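Standup, Tuesday
Yesterday: got the pipeline producing structure tokens again.
Today: sanity-check two examples.
Blockers: none.

Example 1:
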Amino acid sequence: MADLFTGKYAAFIGPAYAITAATLAAMIWTSLAYSRRWRKRTEALNAAQRTGQETEA
């Protein structure tokens, strides 16, 4: 693995790893952000539904 960063392709391998790591981190971050947003929205809808059922009963 150490040979990848010292060979003649080191100028390409290092940035490729960096771009891959940054892309993976961005994908994880956006997935978690959307998950939080969906969870909050679902909780709000469930609370509204429960409130609506309590007033009807």
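Example 2:
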Amino acid sequence: MYTDTIIKDVWKNKDEYLKNHSYNIDNIIKDLMQKQELSKKKFYTLQELPQKSANIKKQNQAQ
């Protein structure tokens, strides 16, 4: 059977991350929120994404 090394590494990293946070969802969320705050990237909420998609569709239709 074929083993995808990339998928294997992703799962290994995920498992390690969860273990480092004691499999506690509150700790995981707190850590991710802290990383998001430190990042300079723009993050969208689920409420923002459909509106953004709709605007892109409108722009494409106008062209």
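Quick observation on example 2: The mean pLDDT is 84. Residues 5-62 form one domain.
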